[in-house]
Amino acid sequence: MKKISLIALFGAVIGFNGFAAQNNNMMTVVSVQEVKGMADDSPVIVRGYLVEQNGENSYLFRDNSGTINLEIEEDDWNGQTFVPTDFVEVWGEVDKNGMTVTEIDVSAIKKL
């Protein structure tokens, strides 16, 4: 019985690690310019700077390719504070609001 349990546990760990590695490889950092050409609800990671707040939960984000609005809800900050000189990594989804406006709906943000 113990051999079967250990084998099952070992298999589950191997399977989870393979799944995590596969998902990690699928997510790469993209530029703001690339985000603007992506489909609605596409997962994205961007790196750059929070330039300014331009609404209650809206922030202007900048990287070397351009700027885009981020929608960051209160719980996505995780108690962190940022200044415009902080280089940050943002995880989220593309949010297409019509044909011309593209934003990122943020799920996590951290300083690098």
**Arrangement of strands in the largest sheet:** 1-2-3-5-4
What is the CATH domain class of the largest domain?
Mainly Beta
Terminal Cα span: 47 Å
Taken as a percent bin, the fraction of beta residues is: 35-45%
Structural class: alpha+beta
Secondary structure topology:
Blueprint: H1 2-26, H2 32-36, E1 43-53, E2 58-63, E3 66-71, E4 87-97, E5 101-111
Parallel strand pairs: 3-5
Antiparallel strand pairs: 1-2, 1-4, 2-3, 4-5
Describe this structure in words.
The chain has 112 residues and is an alpha+beta fold. It has two domains: 1-28; 31-111, OB fold (Dihydrolipoamide Acetyltransferase, E2P). Helices cover 27% and strands 40% of the residues. Strands 1-2-3-5-4 form a five-stranded mixed barrel. The relative contact order is 0.18. Mean pLDDT is 81; it is low at 1-24.
Notable features of this structure?
5 strands, OB fold (Dihydrolipoamide Acetyltransferase, E2P), 112 residues, 27% helix, alpha+beta
What is this entry, summarized?
It is built from 2 helices and 5 strands.
